[in-house]
Amino acid sequence: MNRLKQAISEKGVVISDGVLKVDSFLNHQIDPALTLEIGKEFAERFKNQEITKILTLESSGIAPSLTTALELGVPVIFSRKKKSLTLSSNLLTAKVYSYTKDETNEITVSKDFIVEGDKVLIIDDFLANGEAALGLTSLVKQANATVVGIGIVIEKSFQPGRDKLEQAGFHVESLARISSLKNKKVGFIEEMVA
Ligand code: G4P
Ligand code: NA
Ligand code: NA
Predict the structure, then answer these.
(1) Binding positions for 5-phospho-alpha-D-ribose 1-diphosphate (predicted)?
(2) Is the C-beta atom of 129 inside 6 A of ligand 1?
(3) Domains in the chain, please, with CATH?
(4) What is the pTM assigned to this prediction?
(5) Is 175 annotated as a binding residue?
(6) What is the structure's pLDDT at 87?
(7) 15 lines ligand 1 (CB under 6 A)
(8) Which of 55, 106, 160, 165 is the most buried (most CB within 10 A)?
(9) Average model confidence (pLDDT) for the chain?
(10) Pocket perturbation via mutation, ligand 1, pick of 28, 58, 81, 98 by most ligand atoms within 8 A of CB
(11) 161 lines ligand 1 (CB under 6 A)
(12) Is the pLDDT score of 137 beyond 80?
């Protein structure tokens, strides 16, 4: 997706060989026009899948999920990382290990909102090691619902996440695929336009 790649090139800051900072349009300040285009692109890529729900993880997955959901006409559910005061029973839970933080967190979703028969599109802002996305797929499976695909805004293709998700049988669509962050430079995987 060209406009996204342009934003990454112009506004992204390479923090290290492994980390890209995109706080000016995705992870802190949010660019609404770009996020709207991201939603349209995800909706186009997954349009024939009879999606009934979008599932994401708070917080940075919510904005691109919302714009995609508007296009597809379905609700968004965001999984929580912290226990909620009003949400304490009737939960689906999964453990997610974070390599960057070296800690395991429990993510939760109410059983009221992902139900048997749902066809779920999972969306997240970054794909690194794939642990967050795998945790989300586990929540869907526990509800006897189906994951129809995983949409990622920025994939770090030099990390193992995509391979892990594909080996687990999931269809992954990433709008920007980064091949390298070496020498403070963002390299993209060039993709054929179908
Ligand atoms: P994993 O799910 O792929 O295994 O990733 P990991 O636990 O290592 O990621 C922890 C957090 O860091 C996640 O956000 C993830 O989106 C983010 N992240 C991973 N790599 C990068 C990167 O190169 N750049 C940026 N900007 N973020 C990255 P989170 O803690 O869930 O935060 P948020 O969703 O509230 O923003
Ligand atoms: Na993030
Ligand atoms: Na995230």
Answers:
(1) 128-132
(2) yes
(3) 2-186 (3.40.50.2020)
(4) 0.96
(5) no
(6) 65
(7) no
(8) 55
(9) 96
(10) 98
(11) yes
(12) yes
